[in-house]
Amino acid sequence: MPQEHKPSPTPERAVQGFALYLASSVGFGLYIVWSYIPDSWFKAVGLTYWPQKYWAVAVPVYLCTLLLLGYLVYLGLIFINTPPLSSVTTITDGHANYDIPEYLPSDAIPPLCDLDITEVNRLLYTDT
Length: 128
Known about the structure:
Blueprint: H1 11-36, H2 39-45, H3 54-81, H4 117-125
């Protein structure tokens, strides 16, 4: 019997999520302490091997730039994967449903289906 999907996370995932929350909070706290406390205080405590303060500003800037670049790459992939307007795939595909049932009463609302391009052109561009 397949397991039913529940909106609440499993206990393992809840523990992992809490651990990730704690780790990210501690990491952010360390980042703030490292970026704001002068190097002389670290040397007084005996901590001498720390990255330069340049990286406290450079890493967030690089991450924001990478995020913006990601949006541009995603937009470019959409343009690359979109077929040209002259392609038949912009009109129809293998999943098109052109069948309108004949047994419907005349006053019934027909079910959803695709319209053939010739029918659309006839309705839009002819006077009759």
